[in-house]
Design brief:
single chain; 177 residues; mainly alpha; Four Helix Bundle (Hemerythrin (Met), subunit A); 6 helices; 85% helix; disordered C terminus
Length: 177
């Protein structure tokens, strides 16, 4: 049986959470900003690389949902989809902030790791809300064939968005490295 968008999104949520878990694990195992970390820069470089991969995965997922599933649900679930899009906006803003090193916040340092924790909370909340309130209702609103069609569109969009996010991450990495 062909895949449907709801199952695909749940699988994608697991992939996004795995990417975040790798990022959090990196932060937990990396020493806090210290003389060693500052001297070698290794902690920062590894954190930046891990973040770039996680950010690409998260952005590809968000943008793919916004371009494929959400437009189909907006007429019947306008308020809930608007809330989900606002959640996406908050996640994207935090990803952008985390991706731009500043004087007071560099990859791997304490403030950056706090922001990664905030990102984890936002993403986890969004996934919980979506799986609890949007996806079950979508199953009742959209027919099986349409769910499968949206899944094909989602996979295509995700491929394009991953490529775009990966290219952006590579460009940022070349500026850093």
């Amino acid at each position: 049986m062909p895949r449907n968008i709801l199952d695909l999104i749940i699988e994608d949520h697991r992939r996004v959470m795995d990417a975040l878990r790798r990022l959090l694990d990196q932060g937990v195992t990396a020493p806090p900003e210290s003389v060693i970390a500052v001297q070698t820069g290794a902690t920062s470089a590894v954190a930046e690389q891990t973040f770039a991969g996680a950010a690409a995965e998260i952005l590809a997922h968000l943008q793919s949902e916004e371009s494929t599933l959400y437009p189909r649900l907006k007429p019947e679930m306008r308020d809930r989809i608007r809330d989900a899009e606002r959640e996406h906006g908050g996640i994207k803003a935090l990803l952008q902030q985390l991706g731009r090193p500043t004087e007071g916040m560099r990859a791997g340092d304490e403030r950056w790791l706090e922001k990664i924790g905030e990102l984890n909370r936002l993403v986890r909340y969004h996934i919980d809300e979506e799986e609890r309130s949007i996806l079950p209702r979508a199953r009742n609103l959209i027919g099986t064939e349409t769910l499968q069609e949206i899944a094909r569109d989602f996979e295509e969009a995700r491929q394009i968005n991953r490529h775009a996010a990966g290219a952006s991450a590579a460009a940022a990495e070349s500026r850093i490295g």
